[in-house]
Write a structure and sequence with these properties.
12 strands, elongated
């Protein structure tokens, strides 16, 4: 059964929350490949107004966009230029578009490294063992979508501040209509106004996403 956009958003939020919990429990991101992949597929379906592939292990692609493009989605949690993602050379003929994503585990947000038609991605690829093709992450640069294209999932206001959670998991803060960059200092001030802790249960400072989520939840419940 096809998921609605709202169901995709909810599933993505739940998957991101579970991923974050696993990290807080000390599980390395490299051991969360399946969850990482699921997050990427949900995000790709969301930004393309599409659907997950109808069959498990669908040959070559993971998502079908709203325009009918067959999309192969690769998601990594590797930070920096090291590492690579691999593709099956025998199934690329079934793919119309490739999206490569990275989960920024510091800020818990999704970054787009590559979003291009499959023929254009070939220039980034090199041969690997076992009939595979690989794309070194060092050849890619982060290509964030324009801010005005990102859906706002939740939004709250307090004393001239507006705090928003965007579809890629990022948190932004506006003060008097002006975007505050970086957002974290403003979030820390807002947390103090709300008498919220700046530390998690392990005694570590909340990151931007955690702090923003905490503030949004607190204000939404008032």
């Amino acid at each position: 059964m096809a998921l609605t956009q709202m169901q995709i958003i909810q599933s993505l939020g739940e998957a991101m929350a579970w991923f974050e919990r696993e990290l807080n429990w000390g599980v390395p991101a490299t051991e969360l490949r399946h969850l990482c992949g699921r997050i990427g597929e949900l995000y790709a379906a969301l930004i393309t107004n599409g659907q997950m592939a109808t069959e498990v292990n669908q040959q070559g692609y993971d998502v079908v966009s709203g325009e009918g493009e067959r999309i192969s989605v690769k998601t990594t949690a590797t930070m920096g230029p090291a590492g690579h993602v691999t593709f099956n050379a025998n199934s690329l003929e079934y793919v119309d578009r490739v999206i490569i994503l990275r989960i920024n585990t510091d800020e818990m947000q999704i970054e787009t490294l590559l979003n291009a038609p499959a023929p254009e991605v070939l220039k980034y690829m090199s041969a690997a063992r076992g009939g595979k093709l690989r794309v070194p992450l060092g050849r890619l640069s982060q290509k964030d979508r324009p801010r005005n294209e990102l859906k706002v999932l939740r939004e709250v206001e307090l004393e001239g501040y507006t705090v928003r959670e965007l579809e890629n998991g990022s948190i932004e803060v506006e003060r008097g209509g002006v975007l505050q960059v970086p957002a974290k200092p403003e979030l820390r001030d807002l947390a103090r106004k709300l008498n919220l802790s700046l530390l998690n249960s392990n005694g570590n400072p909340f990151n931007t996403r955690q702090l923003g989520t905490l503030i949004i939840k607190s204000l939404s419940e008032q």
